[in-house]
Amino acid sequence: MYKYDEYDQRIVDERVSQFRDQTRRYLAGEIAEDEFLPLRLQNGLYIQRFAPMLRIAIPYGMLNTRQVRRLSEISRKYDKGYVHFTTRQNVQLNWPLLEQVPDILADLAEVEMHAVQTSGACIRNTTTDQFAGIARDEIVDPRPWCEIIRQWSTFHPEFAFLPRKFKIAVCGSEEDRAATMVHDIGVHAFRNENGNVRFKILAGGGLGRTPMVASVIRESIEPEHLLTYLDAILRVYNRYGRRDNKYKARIKILVKAMTPEVFTEKVESEWEQIKDSASLLPEAEIQRVSQHFIDPEYKGLVDQDFNDLALKAPAGFHSWLKQNVFPHKKSGYCAVTLTLKATGDAPGDVSAEQLDVIADLADQYSLGELRVSHEQNLIFADVEQTALIELWEKLSAVGLATANRGLLTDMICCPGGDFCALANARSIPLAEEIQRKFEDIDYLHDVGELDLNISGCMNACAHHHVGHIGILGVDRKGIEYYQVQVGGSASKEAALGKIIGPSFKREEIPDVLEKILNVYIEQRHEDELFIDTCQRIGITPFKERVYAQAA
Amino acid sequence: MPRLLKNNEVLENDYRILDSESADQAFAGTLLIPAKELSRYKKLLEQKQQPTGLFLDSDDEVESYADILSSFDLITINFPKFIDGRGYSLCRTLRDRYHYKGDIRAVGDVLIDQIFMLQRCGFSSYYLREDQKAEDAIKALDTFTLRYQGSSDDPEPLYRKRKAS
Ligand code: HEM
Ligand code: SF4
After folding, report:
1. Relative to the CA of A311, which of A370, A494, A508, B42 has its CA 20 to 30 Å away?
2. Chain B neighbours among A 94-123 (CB < 8 Å)?
């Protein structure tokens, strides 16, 4: 994990002083509301439905246990004793007091954390694969590149007032576990025929009102040019992105309007001017940052026979092993997902008590570190396989061993109408109703991998467009309704889901889901995943079944 | 209250934007020609009698004036609203691509909380919005003592300066 040096620490400390002064001036009436707004947003501070909301960055999803303990302390001291993990590898406090935010930031800075650029029209927290560095299908470890991008984007003076927010995601594996295709910039790290690291650059993806899949704008770029190339893209966007209409201000609209070809030409000609500037990234810096992400001293272990392991264990362990344990590049090790999706808990929420237990267990079983995934889950990345049963027992005791990773009830879900001022509908109670209906773990395992994403409005914070099943809260004459779409995917072959028809009342949704699943179960070929069946048969069979009585 | 900030000093305003009525030759300071009306004032620029500058709005294309930049004593870049960040890129383009060496001034909705970044992008003076406190603006120039990325004020990114660790 990246460890701050004196420079990194000083920058974060100076940010705390800056924000303390800005908050003081705002409270003293020296900064107007609308002028404080972008300042606080660039520090993660929203004013929400009931209270301010503070979004804290977890750069590329990596946390150590000191930081987890600090989050737990902060949530007790300044908030209501729980935190919320988001789809952007961030964590949110839902009830802080504005006056106390500078103190919270100071407490965070002590453990190398901050809320820099977690909101606002600037370059946001860069996200990546939660299994970065340990995945068996990994080609290039994205973490050093994410850290390099983090530093480059932190207080980038030219890009603090962009037309809109700007999100970058990096992946370096066969599979894309970071939804890079629906980000403003997606960076795909790969190795060329000589084994050298290169990046494929995509731009113009994004969700919200006008969802779009990103276009490739450069097939390959050398590492030393990564930052200048990003500079060039951002400069073109900053100058030509629309500012007259916030719904048309995202880079996806610019890329579409210009066409990806013309956009690319503009970027290339800008880049030609700056590519050999002092911002060329030297090998020494790449090395320096990479040193922070070299493998820990793994023990020489052998892979366990998982069938054997399951036989020895109590009932319940088997499904967890099958679903929540992920292969590791080192034999004898594995990664374990703690889904924050137990029935009745708001997806992504963790209590302070649970955080403390998580920290203890990560120290004991996972080298003192953990990860946050964009599915709003936590991951222990370096678990010895022989310790799995023990770990499962301890997690079960605190409600963190729900065996549903990647299944229907492991939904991505935004805070919706319970917290968010923009919502058309409530997401959390719907998530709970779905979890209650589909509690039978054997049934869920039979249905298999399925991304269900629920957003409370078209801003798409829960990525409903790229859920295999996506649910969107809509407002019809002041009443909450839910629209259903199927066939979306956030993989490298990203696809946007299609709406199956008129929307439903909340209480109808669990049955609608059941009908959709029945169609799949009847029609699937052996071992065919839901999304593959969807793509093969299209939406008509789902539509016909769901709306059958109405006809 | 004077509100022109230049070289850490607070000064009286010394520029005026030309408009159709007042090709006001009596004004002793710098006369600014709006980029959009440059063709109308070509003569004035050629027979320059007094300091003359260029007024760029945030949607102006710097590229169009590349050939004549050196004839201007001052370039102002307008911030119609402080959240319109185009001026930052314009200034960097003037400094880094066209190597403009004269004074580049931020004018319009210029607030102290943006000053640090404006300076980094190559601005050398600031005509603050009326209600801004000039002393605070001077302080704001030192908000951060370190910067990660290179920019027009200092092209060397931190990674070229870090002590080997
Ligand atoms: C509760 C306060 C929140 C507010 C006010 C808010 C606001 C918004 C808005 C306005 C957009 C639309 C941007 C656009 O035009 O494309 C958006 C998109 C998004 N937000 Fe949120 N959001 C909130 C919470 C969250 C949370 C909790 C998450 C994660 C669970 C999240 C993640 C995202 C993502 C991933 C997008 C889509 C990005 C894209 O379009 O590419 N937001 N949010
Ligand atoms: S999708 Fe809408 S309701 Fe949900 S968090 Fe985002 S803005 Fe709020």
Report:
1. A370
2. 121
